[in-house]
Amino acid sequence: MLLKFTAKNFKSFNNEFIFSMEPAPKQKGLDYSILNEKIASKKIKGLCSAVIYGPNASGKTNIISAMEVFKAIILRGTISNTSDHTTPNTAVTNLELIPNSTNKKKSSVDFSIQFTEKGLLIDYFLSLDLGDFLERDYNRKILNEKLMVNEKVIFSRNTILKFGDLSVIKDYLANELEENMKGAVTLAKNNLHDEELFLMNGFKTMFSSKIVSLISDWMKNKFMVIYRADALNTTTKFTDPKKQTVYIEKTLNDAAGIFGINSNAIGYIVPEDGTEAKLCSIFNDRHTALAAEAFESYGTIRFVQMFPLVMRALLNGATLVIDEFDASLHPMALMNIVNLFHNDDINKKNAQLIFNTHNPIFLNANLFRRDEIKFVERDDETHCSIHYSLSDFGTAGQNGVRKNDDYLKNYFINRYGAIKNVDFTPIFEQLLHDENEV
């Protein structure tokens, strides 16, 4: 369960933003949105959903981009560039794209995350010197790195490497560590690399591969960050596929039927040349098939690509973060998916749904709590993004936001910010003027 994510000096965000999935104080109502988990003797609470609003180019997608970049850095264990282009997020592969382009003074790029997994509260912080924006040949360096478990420091790294109270993870330590602790600490301190994460290298090798596996498994399988939903592909893989065979996944096909597909089935066909199966529309009791792109609408394909992620999140208790989640999908389908995450009888494993949108239907006090409604706006002078929640306004005073307020109406009259007045009229007036001048 994700509790908090922060980033600083990341693309349009110069100052630190804090994306919190912790319930704000004094918020009442919609208790189905509150997830509960017991860590040691402490009760941890989290939100099951969050929706991000803001005008185009405000920086909404940069929050999701920061999450994906941080996840990728951890999983590969280094801050060097990579040639892996499996994501359309180029900042994942080329880290020189990360620093804020308007920053006049060299500044660190900072990330932190807090989440729960298997009865542990994990905090991990990373501060990087990546140089300036587009500085490709810069000698990058990890400035600070810190791991905490159940609010106890495990290790911290800046100019030197220090270890805290390892007893909090005693059940996860390497068996031979106790008798070789002094030597392991000395070896770890002498083998730090400027561009390598200690967590994924020395700590994993010498201290606790089990804790690192717990963190990396959560990052890989339960922190499901989709930077661009329109880039989801329409292929899947089977362990032992038979060529020219039609595969119809019953659950997905049933969901597609509820969504609106009723004249045909949705399935996969394995081509002659490989193991990747192509999404197809299946007709006449499996005797005829067309590529889905040739027959289905874009919205239908988007749904079929996305729904397995929703199933995976709910069944595994994962955090699904997705850009433009609602693009090309009918509001009724969207509302039902959101309600699945809000349903205590369905969402039994503390799954979370986080997405950005331009659709105002979610600005509804009966659907989302104030602390679940997030905003991003861009300052016209500094050109930097700012992130905040509806709950940050409080409930008292002229600018207070109360539970029974009309969030949608107030948003469009610019009570909350994060909205831009768009008027293209001057452009066309100038075009017409120039044309008359000729």
How would you describe what is shown here?
This protein is α+β, with helices and mostly antiparallel strands and 438 residues long. It contains 11 helices and 20 strands. The chain has 2 domains: 1-228 and 323-438, 3-Layer(aba) Sandwich (Rossmann fold), CATH 3.40.50; 233-300, no CATH class. It is 26% helix and 25% strand. The strands form 4 sheets. Strands 2-1-6-7-8-9-10 form a 7-stranded antiparallel beta sheet. It has a 6-stranded mixed beta sheet with strand order 11-17-18-5-19-20, sandwiched between helices. Strands 12, 13, 14, 15 and 16 form a 5-stranded antiparallel beta sheet that branches. The chain is globular, with a radius of gyration of 24 Å. The N and C termini lie far apart (64 Å).
The quaternary organization reads as: single chain
Could you tell me the mean pLDDT? 89
CATH architecture of the largest domain, by name, is: 3-Layer(aba) Sandwich
User: Which structural class do you get from the secondary structure elements?
Assistant: alpha+beta
GO molecular function: ATP binding; ATP hydrolysis activity
Pfam family, one: AAA_21
InterPro entries: ATPase_AAA_core (IPR003959), P-loop_NTPase (IPR027417)
Domain ATPase AAA-type core: 50-363
